[in-house]
Specification:
The protein is α+β, with helices and mostly antiparallel strands. It is built from 12 helices and 14 strands. 37% of the residues lie in helices and 25% in strands. α9 packs across α10 and α11 crosses α12.
């Protein structure tokens, strides 16, 4: 039983951060603290990013003393607003009312909220008192694909139920001036904030339908991607091997996932990928045997929004739909674990 995507929407954070302005501010803040910063400065220009959006204004990052409480406060306020905007737009796109939603899946990995985001937004948005809440934490950059797959499984398991999936991340408050590893610098180069939402059910027909997805986790890879947690906040873990790892191993993971879904990779007309960074996009094209330029929609999303973690792949899906992409597509995203998540999609005219 295929699941229909009746609504899809995205939301961006309110503060626009042009890459040149971020680069100049980072050089001023980090240059005196990090002895090798000058060698990494070119990364800002080579990242394939023109601008990003943030829940915090640019001058917020001048204060080196932000701790857990302040970082999580601005994450919480930002993600609540992003949740409302993305969810509201997806419901409007589907023609659904909030009180018609039976299940809400909320995906995030960049902050802590208990009660979770959908509960905070309950009264204002008008969800029913008996709505089923399914908060999902810790999937990182794979969260858009994995969260979508989880939401589709819930819709498939309860035919006729209306499932709202919302993926909201605010990565930029994790900016650190105290650790200054290379990974922290690269996070400063890449990260943006945003949200995406979609409405799923087994009823009717829609321009996008989903088949059951699959995941692949590699052994002995826990240190490739994730968060370090300390008294100051979250500290990013990005291993420099990620592009090379993706190039070398993504094809075998995709083939294994397709086999588990009863498919062959050759059956798909194209890919919808999470654009983790410019080097990762190129590595995916090479490793998956795609023609150069096949993932230009991913490059365009990265250029305009940076890496927003989990929602980014749904930005790509929306952009692909707007560009008139049709056929059978395989959504793919890499995340902590180290995990690849795959979702088969059918995109009609």
């Amino acid at each position: 039983m295929n699941v229909q995507m009746h609504g899809l929407a995205t939301a961006t954070a309110p503060h626009d951060l042009p890459q040149r302005a971020v680069s100049e501010r980072a050089e001023r803040i980090l240059g005196p603290r990090y002895p090798h910063f000058a060698r990494l400065l070119a990364s800002f220009a080579q990242a394939g990013i023109d601008r990003r959006q943030s829940v915090a204004p640019l001058d917020w990052f001048d204060d080196a003393a932000h701790g857990w409480e302040e970082r999580n406060r601005i994450w919480h306020a930002g993600c609540v607003a992003l949740f409302r905007e993305a969810a509201g737009a997806a419901l409007a796109d589907a023609g659904w009312r909030a009180d018609e939603v039976d299940v809400i899946v909320t995906v995030t990995s960049t902050g802590i909220a208990t009660p979770t985001l959908e509960a905070v937004c309950q009264d204002e948005m008008g969800f029913r008192r008996d709505v089923t809440r399914v908060p999902v934490f810790g999937l990182g950059c794979a969260g858009g694909a994995s969260g979508l797959s989880i939401a589709a499984q819930l819709a498939r398991g309860q035919p006729g139920a209306r499932v709202l999936a919302v993926v909201a991340e605010a990565c930029t408050p994790s900016f650190r001036t105290d650790r200054l590893s290379k990974a922290d610098i690269i996070a400063t180069v890449l990260f943006g904030d945003g949200a995406a939402a979609c409405c799923l059910s087994t009823e009717g027909e829609a321009a996008i339908s989903l088949e059951p997805g699959a995941q692949h986790i590699w052994p002995d890879t826990l240190g490739i991607m994730g968060w370090d947690v300390d008294g100051t906040g979250l500290g990013v873990v990005f291993d420099r091997s990620i592009p090379a790892f993706a190039e070398a191993h993504m094809a075998e993971a995709a083939d294994a996932a397709c086999a588990s879904m009863g498919r062959a990779r050759e059956e798909f007309d194209g890919m919808v990928c999470h654009p983790g960074g410019a080097k990762v996009i190129t590595a995916l094209e090479t490793g998956l045997g795609l023609r150069q330029g096949s993932l230009d929609v991913e490059r365009n999303v990265l250029r305009d929004h940076g890496n927003m973690s989990a929602p980014t792949v749904l930005f790509v899906l929306k952009a692909a739909r707007q560009a008139g992409r049709q056929g059978r597509m395989l959504m793919a995203a890499l995340g902590p674990g180290f995990t690849a998540s795959f979702v088969p999609l059918e995109m009609a005219a």
